[in-house]
Amino acid sequence: MLRSQPLDNPASQPVPSQPPSNLARLKTWGQPGPYPIQKLTFNLEDKTPKRIQLSQSSRQFPVDLYLPQTSQRKPSPVVVISHGLGSSRSAYVYFANHLASHGFVVAVPEHPGSSVQYFQALLAGQVSRDSGAEEFIDRPLDVSFMLDDLKVRSQTDPRLQGRLDLEQVGVAGHSYGGYTALALAGATINFNQLQQDCGPALQQTLNISLFLQCQALSLPPQNYNFTDARVKAILTISPITQSIFGPSQLKTLKLPILLLASGADTITPTLLEQLRPFTWLNSPHKYLALIEKA
User: Fold this and answer.
1) Distance between CA atoms of 292 and 256, rounded to whole angstroms?
2) Element (H or E) spanning 86, and its range?
3) Which end of the chain lies in a sparser environment, N or C, as judged by fewer CB atoms within 10 Å?
4) What is the pLDDT of residues 191-245, one digit of tens each?
5) Angle in degrees, 0-180, between the axes of helices 176-185 and 134-156, rounded to the nearest 10
6) Domain ranges in the chain?
7) Are strands 59-68 and 37-46 parallel, antiparallel or unpaired?
């Protein structure tokens, strides 16, 4: 992990010749933690007025919850993992287990309008249309509703009582899930940027993720604010950012942000969707990590 340094300005500080003093501690985080894990699955249905108003329908989706079996009495912080387009909550079992083994409660929702099961059903003719732009609304709503639901369950379900600190939430999101995390952190859809980037030049772009981002233009243009104050930090893995948010939105974020980029991503190009957008962030705690051959 590297502390932020604008890409167009060379670093003015010398690179330390010695490794950081906490390197040994960082290495231990790569190993499984000491805690055994209990996995629970819940099926949720959101019929709240906000959901109905914004997406015109209710929404059902499953959630996997990974609970560390600790002896500590205080509640554990919660990490949410939001999957990418055409993926599922099961794709992140290894990540959820690892975090839970270190003492975090991990909640992994399935976003039904952009999951692998949805696209399989679409290809089989079992659903009538692509969920399209509505997922830009539904995904962050899924997470906030899930946190509301877990708060209720933590007061009524003996397995969860006193276990979850729902005021200390981190969100990790991959690709489309990166959008979800950034939206929950306070970034809103930038319709002006989308109109600028989704014109005739779209047909010549090599940025495949831009075709997904441009779908948001079919939404009624308004201020879609999905900020959730319970979210205190985010991890974005190859997120889509350039046009859906643009500089004007990313610079407003103040939460700690770790942006993880891949050196071999052909869907969300690293330079356009992660490296340049990283320079737009004004958060005092922003970090960039690049995995060269991932």
Assistant:
1) 23
2) none
3) N
4) 999 999 998 878 888 899 999 999 999 999 999 999 999 999 999 999 999 999 9
5) 70
6) 32-291
7) antiparallel
